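Box 3.1. Reading complex inputs
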Amino acid sequence: MSVHGLTLGDVLGEHRRGRPLGLAVVDADVRLTYPGLDERVNRLANALAADGVAPGERVLWLGRNSFRILELLLAAARLGAICCPANRRQSAGELTFVLDDLRPAVVVFEESEAAGQARARTVAKARWVAAGEEYEAYAAAGAPSEPAVTVDPGDPVLALYTAAFDGRPAAALLSHTALIAHTMTLLHVRRMEDGFTYLNSGPLFHVGTMMFCLAAFQLGGTNVFTPAYDPEEVCRLIEAERCTHAFLFGPMIDRLVEANAGGAHDLSSLRFASHSPAWDAMITVDDSPWGASKMGGYGQTEVGGMLTFLGLAPGGRGPAGRPSPLVHVRILDPAGTEVPPGETGEICARGATIFSGYWNRPERNAAKTAGGWHHTGDLGRREPDGTITFIGPGLRMIKSANENIYPAEVERALREHEAVADAAVIGVPDPAWGQSVKAIVVLKDGASLTPEQVVAHVRSRIASYKKPRHVEFADAIPKKGHTPDYDALDAAYGGGGHPGT
Amino acid sequence: MSVHGLTLGDVLGEHRRGRPLGLAVVDADVRLTYPGLDERVNRLANALAADGVAPGERVLWLGRNSFRILELLLAAARLGAICCPANRRQSAGELTFVLDDLRPAVVVFEESEAAGQARARTVAKARWVAAGEEYEAYAAAGAPSEPAVTVDPGDPVLALYTAAFDGRPAAALLSHTALIAHTMTLLHVRRMEDGFTYLNSGPLFHVGTMMFCLAAFQLGGTNVFTPAYDPEEVCRLIEAERCTHAFLFGPMIDRLVEANAGGAHDLSSLRFASHSPAWDAMITVDDSPWGASKMGGYGQTEVGGMLTFLGLAPGGRGPAGRPSPLVHVRILDPAGTEVPPGETGEICARGATIFSGYWNRPERNAAKTAGGWHHTGDLGRREPDGTITFIGPGLRMIKSANENIYPAEVERALREHEAVADAAVIGVPDPAWGQSVKAIVVLKDGASLTPEQVVAHVRSRIASYKKPRHVEFADAIPKKGHTPDYDALDAAYGGGGHPGT
């Protein structure tokens, strides 16, 4: 056992001693102090160990939000195992894929048609435990002593499915060290302090909520859980538990304001960004440089959450701000060479918060860590003042006259035109230059533009060699999720000759 | 190269890119941006490498405060080597001990009689470089490219001599990871932010100043250096550089207030704890829960600086507060078993900020890490509310003018006098300095010495601040086993005011 080690289980052990009366979790009628949570976690860990959950084994949660996700994660932490909270609203086929991919030793699930079908179809041999009474009995049956397992804090403990770049998601593995390091960056950037009470109002299978849940835990604060986003219930919980923070964004806030229109609930404990006059009147607006409104930056599940923060570069030119103090960033070209400030390349990084690779994806992991740098797959640049701009995902590249052109960058420039509703960019074969750039543009209702105007606009924004040589107008851009479906675009508009294809 | 690595050299590399105009250091007529510091560090590193400074080799600084200590540390960091800034005010014998113990490859030194004698006596084969023109030419001669050395962030990079428990100091080794982790705890606890400008007004061979120097560096802030504590010059620097923080305590502040009695200097940029009405009127008093006044807690060089912080347990019962978020603490009995809350035991800890052992002390290191816990050698307890109380050193220590003085070290010097049969040293309360040193001396039969001769003898052997201010002669030293019975000595000779009592 190294004197330098700190695992999530160790954090819980410290809180049991250091915060004997501290309220760790609130969930419906469950209220647990840190000693109470520690005892439940030990019992659950010993029950899991009896079901074969050894170091490196996986446990899967298929259910709505619950403090039991944190409990399961901490029990896995005590065993050197990996906890995966997955999205239960996936189809039976998607759930089967997750089960076959992850091969969990134990699955805790809420009944659903899809879960039942996936259970019948999967080749994974898991012990299935139904959330509710069965789980409670299961979790209470283990011995209360701490499992005698030596856990390496560099080993993964959390798996989150993400990044369906090739049409199938993969589970990003995050180690104890990465999660604790990421928490330290949040504590620093957001000036988190004693009394932090977090309402887990977003899904815990997403890093956006999970990272704050873990920060509240590491701080010795309180995590409040609600099974799903119900604006009435969220108002009630904020008032009852004096929640100081919550996972909320635009449309969620609008529904909250509507639900509390009569002012029935006192939401003044909540410190959040300004949104609308009605919202601002209900809560405590935090417009400090480290407040919620300045949370912006650049991140992804694979870096534990956030890699850069706007709040670390007040007044800087790049909207992504500066890297957190525990990482460093390089903007690299496809050959792995650093590009100069002002030029676009792939955002690459190194540091304590970076993930440990995807579960069961050795080839992709090798590509993600080429040259000893984590390759985010996203495009960005260093501004002359040293701050970072996130350009967009770097899925597809165009090679014209030996220059690398990233569709996301050209698309961003196109969308900045007031007459453009949407746009996508592909490479078309070019006998002279290998490829040339073709833009497919959707105009706003009633707007009109000539191809020449489109080209002139792009040329005014980015380097000339990136401007489209061909422009076609269309009614819509085919999409895969939120990103253009480039295969469909290539087929419809004559694309081809992409490097690497 | 792991994607998780972050060394001090990496931090500098990020700042070179991220803060192209950021002022890194100010020292007399030297003003360096981060790119400027990065270039100097690379040149110095390449020069050191040519002198055999390979991974694990040591470089020693024997001089007053200077930005060149940070530069030397960062150059060592780029090479995987270890930098030791040592106290140049030590005697020739003490300096010889350090040289023989550390065996540095390169020594940068300011001329002094003691340094000259130590250089003549030591068996260490080092390249000696005189601070000043010789050093400047030496540091400028290397190539400006970054050395191609892969550095493990878990390897030591800083060595600080401390802990003369057995009569001889030892060099505590701190890794990149430990120093960066400790900085993260400071950023969190002290809410450090952009614009942090630190005046290095304390000695950089002491962790108390070094930890803030490193925090300012990690933040991308500015470090201002002054060769020694001159109140007039400190006032001038605070005003000229708009320093926001500085290393200061009671008697230093009194001298500053005296020097600025006429209000000649505007010290309002300095944010510091309240001290006296005159002081409070000169500076910006920071009485926030994370302000300088709440810096208290418990620490030692071996944990990178601070292990626990009062500011993390506002209103808590234990004056040492709570552990930093990157460590966990156990109070253990001599058998390594945890003692219950309220009972005294040894403060033991695990976590990222813990040191890598003492240089060249394998037996002591084994004892320090028994059972996988770092043994601080200090006594403490958990209060019922979970907070920590520091009781005192497991071995007796004297604290005078913020310096740790170990009786064993002074006693060893006393016993080396041919007329001394036995001796013991206690601390007596001192209104100005907390404590001062009192020696109780047993002379050999027929020998005679004056108190002045005793003091002069000690002063010839060890640093002046450790010499006795009071000497009493006695017939015998009361003992507990082989060691002096300090409680009996305190009672008989007016001892008291020991830290923790």
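In summary: The domain at 403-493 of chain A is CATH 3.30.300.30 (GMP Synthetase; Chain A, domain 3).
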